[in-house]
Amino acid sequence: MLSKSAASSTTYESDLAVPRFAHRPVEHREHVASDDLVAINSHVRPVRMVVFLETDNSVGGGFQQATNAALLAKRLPPELCTVTFVTTRRSAIEELRLSGIDARYLPVHRWQKLLARFHVMWRLLNPPPLLKKHVYFNWIDRSLRGMGADLVYFTGPSYLALVTAQFSYLFTVWDLAHRDEVDFPEVRSGGEFERREQIYQLALKKATGVVVDSEAGRDNVVRRYAVDRERVHVIPFSPAIGTQLPEHELNRPDRFIDIKEKYGLDCDYVYYPAQFWPHKNHVYLLRGLRSLEDRFGIRVGAVFSGRDFGNLAHVRSVAADLGLTDRIRFAGFVSDCEVTCLYRQAIALVMPTYFGPTNLPPYEAFQLRVPVLYSDLKNLRDQIGDAGLLIDLLNPGSMADALRKLIVDPDLKMLLVERGKQRIESLTDERRLSVLRTALEAFRARRMCWQTAPKMSPIGER
């Protein structure tokens, strides 16, 4: 990892000095001597980027994706960018370290969160400069300045992007589900819709760049929030680190867990790794299994892994009502090792979620050579293309039909596995890194236009 001292250097003024031939007439600049070109390049320093990680593994895919984004940033060439990693969750430090990310801990206390909200509301009022100086204290800008930051990369949809008044930033949008699927309580109740809307309305238009997972995600950001299309960068998700081990590692005896034996299953099963939110639509999967047995006499179980965010009791009650309790298992939070076994021993990944446009489990299934059944929704179907079977969320029977095809037709299974392999192999880190490099190169050219240390008033924002 790049040293923190490199990312925190405070040698500012000489970094952006004017090249010594800049005063020459335009017509002679094509004859610049080689020593002048060396002088030019010596003044093009790396961007100092601070990467924020604000979740821990309790959020599931969000943490995995933020970790993957940080690992990608770590691979940026040092001549372009030096990186400092920051986490606001003490609980994430050790797991990030095990993933290869040495992150500084920046505590965000409750009083700071309240101050941040007051800070944002105060700026929206656009008070006179004198009041701006004396009323609030920008603790996040002070911290970023202490780290020598030029640019901040928020690896998730962060409220802190609204707080910084001095630093440019890249802002990540995982989804706009609160606009796409407004019926679900997790995005409409308790002020959640308004909170998300405030973040996106204010943060996106001011962002140096917006990072999304797909072309559908880019179209949605541009359409919903009138963001310039060229400032929205598509960096596809990548599978969780634990699913990317080489085959010989996955096949080690000490990594093998017999899933049926562990969970007392007497039949084959499908797998669904998802937190228990209503939008994850576990109940559809249960209804699909009931239809599979009632129509075709095929008895299949399911293993659900993930934490409860308020909907687990409902899912359990539906399983009981459908007479499926004997073959449904709730694994809770499981290790990376067990996750790979859960995938590889399943008939298929079944993911009837309403939220997208991209989710990590289909990519993980492709990586582990497992067939995928996925929601047939406009913004989701492009993720798997012809590498999976699409299921109609209005008709659980379509899931039963797809599972039956997989079970009775081994050739179909092999075809989907091969297509999934090709699809995941096309989403290379080199492709992702190229997009991020291009965005940083454009920022660096602009960043050279002003002194490195933002001018701060002695009493105002620091």
UniProtKB/TrEMBL annotation:
The keyword Calcium is annotated on this UniProt entry: no
A GO molecular-function annotation: glycosyltransferase activity
Domain of life of the native organism: Bacteria
Glycosyltransferase subfamily 4-like N-terminal domain span: 69-236
Assigned keywords, A-Z: Transferase
UniProt key word Transferase: yes
Residue ranges occupied by any Glycosyl transferase family domain in the UniProt entry: 268-423
Protein's recorded name: Glycosyl transferase, group 1
